[in-house]
Structures are given as C-alpha cells and as structure tokens.
Amino acid sequence: MDARSSKRPARLGSFRAKFILVVGGAVLFDLLVSGGLALWNVQRLSRDATLEVGQGLEAASQEYIRTYADSTAAQVSLLLRQVHNDVGTLAGVLQAQIDDPARNSDVGAAIARTSPGSVSLSYDQKTNWSQNAPGSASVVSVWGYLLGQDHQPRPDVQSDIQTSAVLDLVAPSLLQRGASKLQMYFIGSKERPIFRTAPYTDQAQTFDRLYPGHNEANFWDFFFPGLYESWQGWAKDMKTRPVADDITQTAPYTDAITGKLIVSFFQPLWTADRKDVAGTAGADITLDQLAQTVENVKVAQSGFGFLAMSDGNVVAINSTGEKTLGLRSASDASGAGVTGLERSLKGSAQPAIAKLALDREQGIQHLMLQQDGNEVPYIVIVKRLPATNLWVSGPVRQEAMSLGVVVPEREIEASLYAAQAKISEATNRIVLYQILAILLSLLVVTIAVFAASKRITGGISALADAAKRIQAKDYSVRVAISSKDEVGEAGEAFNRMAEQISYHTENLEQLVEERTAQIEDAKEEISTLNAQLERENRRLGTELAVAERIQLMVLPLHQELEEFQALEIAAYMRPAEEVGGDYYDVLKNGNRLKIGIGDVTGHGLESGVLMLMVQSVARALQEAGNTDAVKFLTDLNSALFKNIVRTKIDKHLTLAFLDYDGKEMILSGQHEEVVIVRANGDVERIDTMDLGMPIGLEADISAFIKTREIAFATGDLILLHTDGVTEAANDGGELFGIERLCREARRLKDQSAEKVVSGIVAALMRFVGSQKIYDDITLLAVRHR
Questions:
Q1: Where are the transmembrane segments (predicted)?
Q2: What is 364-389 written as a DSSP string?
Q3: What angle, rounded to 10 degrees, do the helices at 25-99 and 287-295 form?
Q4: E strand or H helix at 302, and its extent?
Q5: Beta 248-250 vs 304-308: how paired, if at all?
Q6: DSSP string across 568-610
Q7: Which of 183, 429, 479, 581 has the fewest beta carbons closer than 10 A?
C-alpha cells in the first residue's frame, strides 16, 4: 500500500470523511441516548425498589408476627388439651367404678387386701383428721367431720376410701405419660369429700398450716365455693354448661402442698343415675408449664408474649414484658380457700395497655408506650384461645384466655430502614459512575474514530483488491499492511488464509492421510484408557467386596444367638449398597446379654466403616465388664467421637441397647420405636427419643442418656428395626410404616423368632415389589421362651 495515500487529508466526499461522520456520529448519539436512559432507569429502579422492598418487608414482618402468635397459641392449646385428656382418662376409670357398684366394691376390697397402706388411716388427735401413712402410691385425707365418735371413718366414708384406692392403679401411669402434671386426685361428694392425691405428700398437715379452720368447714364450700353447686346444676340440665365440656379449669392460685402457682382441672363424676354429683377427678399443672411456652416467645430483639384471662389478669409473661407493659403483681388473699394471682392489664401504668381489648381479635394494633420519658411505638397482636369452663369464685363461667405478642416497631422496621439506605447509597454511586463513564466514553470515542479512520480505510482498500485476486484463483497474492490493529490482524489472517488455501490445494491427499493416522492414534489412546478404567473398576469392586465381607463377618453367628437359653433371637440385615450403615449385635458376657441396633446416616463405605467402629468399641466395653447402661453408651460415644474427628467422617448414628440379665430387660439410647408383642397379643410401642441422643455429635452425652425397664415375660416378643423397614416404599410412594410392621408382628407372634423375622421380611418384599430399596434394612426379633 502506498504510504503517501495514508497522509492525504480526508475530502468531504471521501470514504474516511464518511466513516468519521457516520461512525462517530452514530457512536456519540448512542452513548448520549443509552447513558441518559440508563440514568433515568437507575433513578426509577431505585424508587420502585425502595417502595417494593418497604411494602414487602412490612407485610412479611406482620405476617411473621401473626404466624408466631398462631403457633404459640396452638402450643398453649395443645398443653391444655393434653391435660384435659389425662383428666378425662382418670375420670373415665372412676366413673366406670361408680356405674358398677358391685365391681367398685370388689376392686376396693381387693386393693385393701393387697395394699392395706392405701386404706389404713391413723387419727391425729391434735388436728382432728385421719390420713394413711407414707409408702403408698397416694395419700388419702379424711377430715374430722367425716369421723365417728371412735375417730374412725364412718362406714360410708370407709367405703369411699376403699373404692377410691383404684387411683393407685391409674394415676402413676398418667403422671408419667402425657402432659407433665404436678399431681392427680379424687375428691369425694359434698357429703363425703375425702381427698386422695397421687403422689403421696403431707397433705393434711400442709392444709392445717396454710388454711386454718378448713377442718371445721365443708371442703367444697371452704376451698371452691360455688363450684359444686354449678355441677349440680349441670346434672339437672347439661345445656346450662357455659362450654359444652365437663372439664372445669380454675384461675391460677397458690397450691397448698407445693407452694407453687398452679392451675387445677376438674371433671365432675356423676352418680349412677346421672342426677347428682359423686365427686371429681382432677389434676394440677404449675403455672410454670404455661408460662414457659409464653415466656419463650422472642420476636426480633426484645419482643415478648403474654397470656391473659378475659378480665385482663396476666397469668404468664417474662420479666422484661412485665416491665414494658407496666404491670403490678399482687396476691388476692381475701376470703377463705385458695389464693389467686392478680396481675391485671387494667391496672397497668401504661394507659394504652389498660385500654387494650381482649374480648375479640383485632389483628395488628399499633400502640404508644412510655419508656424513659419517651413515647415508643409498639406492635401488638392478640389471639384468643378456645373457650373453657372457668371457676374463680362462685358459679362456673365461660372463659377464653388470650395470647398476646408485643414487639417494638423500630425492631420490625429496622431491616426496612437499612434496605432503603443501602438502595439510596447504591443508586447515588451508580449515577456518579454512569456520568463519569459517559464522559470518558465520549472522549475515547472521539479520539478513536479519528485515529482509526486513518488506518482502516487504507487497509480495507488493500484487502478488497487482494480478495478480488483470490476470487480470480491467484492464490499467490499477499497483503502488505504494517499496522498492528484489527485491520493489520485482518491482513495477517488474510495472508495466512491465502497460504493455507494454496497449501491445501497442493497437498490435499497428503493431509487426508495424516488426519487418518491421527484418528487411528486417538482410537488406540482411547482403548488404553478404557483398559485402565476397567482395571480400576475391578480394583474398586474388590475393595467393596472385601469391606462387605468384613462387615458380614462381624455379625453374630447363628450359634451365638442360641447360647442364651431363656431367649430365642433371630436377625436379618440387607444393605442398600455393597456396604451398609446399619448395625446390630448380640454380645454375651457371663449371664448378661447386650443386644444393640443402630443406623449410621447414609450408607456406603464410610457408613460401613463407622458401623465396624461401633461393633469393635461395643465388644471391647462388654468384655471389659461395663454393665452400667448409661456409662456404656457414654464411653462408646466418647471413643467414636474421637475417631470421627480423626478420620473426618461426616457421619453419626442412632443407637440403642437392650441389657438382659435373666430377670430385667433395660432399654437405653435413642433409635427407632421398640415394638413389643405380648403373649396375649397386645402390642406396645416404646418411643426412645428421650432415652439418649445420636452418637458422634457431641464429645459427652452423659446428660442425655436415660434407661427404661421393660417388662419381658414368657411368650413376649420384642422387635428392633431400622428406618429402612418402616420407610421402604412401594411403586405408589406409600411407606411400609410402623403400623403395618406391628400388624405383621401380631400376626406372627406365636411363631419362632426366625419365622417372625422371615415372615415380616417376606411381607416387606411383597409390599415393595419392583420398587428399588434405597436404605439399609435391619430387623431383630427377641422372644422370651
């Protein structure tokens, strides 16, 4: 290309002038328009984002508060419903006895013969009452006006003492299960109000200390005036009940026996003809149990909850909330009988709280509360609980407690303010950067257009001439462009293209042969890699087979399972992969037998290794004579935790053990439910969640390990299993489930342990059908011969 042509000034009609005008103008216009649109869009996006984020965060925060209030209200209602169910169960037993006088008398006589301490009373001359001695499952107190001249209970009272002893058979089990209860009791009719309570306490002595004069007045009139008469009204017309339920709840009051604030739940007992009241079954829970659910409410940083009666009396709130709401606590000590708690919203030092309505749900409320001389905005939501029958003093009335959640608005809206500030800051930064970018782009484009025009036009002309010669099949043409920009690169690329065209035209056949040779070499390399892959697969398969073999070798032998004469043991294990993560073992040391079952998280080689660790450590502890079930699990966890840390295996396992010495069967550790099929066909399921925690998560789990003794008589059958049994699914996605497992166990209860296991496994495989099994399956049956 002629160097002089590149130095000639651009004429108005030349390609260079047109290039500068068209390209430069278009680029400048595009920069100005796109930059302006970008700035406008950024500002609009900032406004829209601020609005949307604000509305979304406000709606989300309020929905969160509503959901939190609903959830907490459900927890409180569940606790109350559990207590109702337990009281109803006790009342059902006692009512059944009342309805069958002959059986009632027989049961009382039988208990008097077998447990004389339950019905044998001693008279206290100083205080004029009789009470049975400690050592019984329950305490029964008989007041002086129910005693004869010989200081012995009247015959009709003595009959009630004997028949009420059925409480000893029922109450201990109810106290251990269901909702946590302080005590359960039976109170006789107004004519014979004997008081029997489980567990045993110094009942009458405590009443004498806290309630002087109670022994000279009728029990019902002294402690619960108006309650008995309300029930008598119900007996005449059940429609007079404020709420269609027999359960009657008291307002919180101070318990005579424990000194704690409690709530009592009564269910009246009716005479056999249902025309009068025969007494009541009852249970007490401490106010702490209600308060704990409410006091654990924590919304944002300082939000809290409260539980209040419909009259505004707050029965549960934490100390922070009590101060914020301006509540004053006081005990209502007026009159005889139980002493209540008075801490009313109506007496609040905060005017907005004193006016707070509890008779209906009003959704989100915004209140101004005084704090350190300033008014602070708060959000309050009130949820009403289901209505109940309530006794305070006098007739029973309807009561619907309310759960409130209170949280400062500034904490709820803190994220909104922060988000808006961040959006504004980001918007300003983007606008500034956008303006600087536009100005810089304008300068660079102007310089670049003028500089590029000088080189591009000359180079383009040379490339056009060379292209025409290539078109004429003159492959010897080359372009001489000395610039190093894109035009120069295009010239170099054109020259290489022309050279390659010339080369390929002259050497096409040779190139085909070379490419064919390259393809053959590639095939040979692929074949070599396939052979290496096949050898590696065989090696890995061999390793997995060895691991599987080791895992199977450490399982108990058939003759080991038959060594314990009193028990018949059978087991089945099927890994989901070559190496499974399930564990079971039967360890014998002298006359003691330890049966273990566990499930490592996941399956595969790592899970199998952890299972082998469990087996080895358990065997070592058993051989070392570790007979304490809690210490056994604690030491096993400590050893495994250290191995898990060392090997960096991100696994843990559920693990439970049965310890049997020929007399007692002790269960410890956390795993799946233990299923027991009694000789008479009854099925029991024991939840192990409270007996331990997963092994390998913490270095010390001694505080979490508990034991439970299991009755195990001749003909009884115990089933241990992993979740691979109950969670096996069929083609429709339905799980095998614990209920189906229990039905199969009951069906096979009279078979040998081996047939029980094989029968359940066969039923499981029929249920699963062709569906793939994704988890390890382990089943262990232990029958008492």
A1: 20-40, 430-452
A2: EEEEEEEETTEEEEEEEEEEEPPPEE
A3: 170
A4: none
A5: unpaired
A6: EEEEEEE-SSSS--EEEEEEEETTEEEEEEEEESS-SHHHHHH
A7: 429
Q: What is the rounded CA–CA span in Å between residue 684 and residue 702?
A: 27
Provide the angle, in degrees to the nearest 10, between the axes of the packed helices 486-506 and 414-471: 50
How long a stretch of residues is the chain? 785
405 contacts: CB under 8 Å, gap ≥ 6: 65, 68, 69, 72, 297, 299, 303, 304, 305, 380, 381, 383
How far apart CA 459 and CA 95 sit, in angstroms, is 110
- DSSP letter for 665, please: E
Pairing status of strand 777-784 against strand 567-574:
antiparallel
What's the rounded Cα separation, in Å, for the pair 735 and 239? Answer: 46
Q: Cis before residue 199, ω within 30 degrees of 0?
A: yes
**Residues of the chain under the 50 pLDDT cut:** 1-8, 332-336
Of the candidates 60, 148, 761, which has an alpha carbon nearest to the alpha carbon of residue 413? 60
DSSP characters for 345-358?
A: GGG-SSHHHHT---
In one-letter notation, the amino acid at residue 532 is Q
Residue 697's contacts (CB-CB under 8 Å, 6 or more residues apart) are: 641, 652
pLDDT of residue 676: 97
8 φ/ψ angles, rounded to the nearest 5 degrees:
-70, 140
Nearest of 192, 277, 261 to residue 227 by alpha carbon: 277
Q: Which of 64, 67, 63 is nearest to 300 (CA)?
A: 64
Q: pLDDT, tens digit, for every residue of 701-719?
A: 999 999 999 999 999 999 9
Locate 486 and state its tokens.
């894109």
